[in-house]
Amino acid sequence: MISALVPVKRLAQAKGRLAPLLSQEDRSALALAMLADVVRALGQAERVGEVAVVSADPRVLDEARRLGAVAIEEPTSVRGVNAALAFAARELTARGTEALLVVPTDVPTIAPSEVDGILKALPSPRGIVLVPSVARGTSAIALRPPGAVPFRFGPQSFVAHRREAVAGSVPSRILSIASLATDIDGPQDIVHLLSRPAETETHRALAKMDVVQRLRAFPGQSRPSR
Q1: Could you tell me if residue 45 is inside a domain?
Q2: pTM
Q3: Domain holding 186: CATH number?
């Protein structure tokens, strides 16, 4: 079975770089909207057998269950996203997962066809597929088996994941996917997202927050078109 896994921070820590633009309540709402978009896209992909969410936040886990995903509670002993992913990967392996796709919530416009494309490229019987961001991060990583390489999310994680693959002699493939190239992190990323209209929960949440008007008053930002 192929499983997809989405790591999510506590909502109180979500999207901190957007604090000058959005309140804590708005940032939490945005994080949940992005989660919904990513989980639904993963769930609609033909090659994904199940979708799981790992988090220490009860609200996130409740939302994951509502969306039909497996909710994996992050233990209090776990520190950081990479440890959380390693824990969840072990849990999913015990459930019969043979290959794993990890997608952060930062790419809410990901499409089911793109998910299937990543998994189709996954080497067999062992290997990884990396989808880099423009900032040299990792927008998605697929692994067969789930522990093929250690998780190295963080600054320059694309380079770190490639290094792990080379060190372990793990076959790797790299895919460039436009919708996954820019994650939603700072105000300029919101501008970029809004310049590409789409029917997503994330777009609807931002419209409800009247983010276009807020961005017009935000120093140093390009003006998004409606």
Answers
A1: yes
A2: 0.89
A3: 3.90.550.10
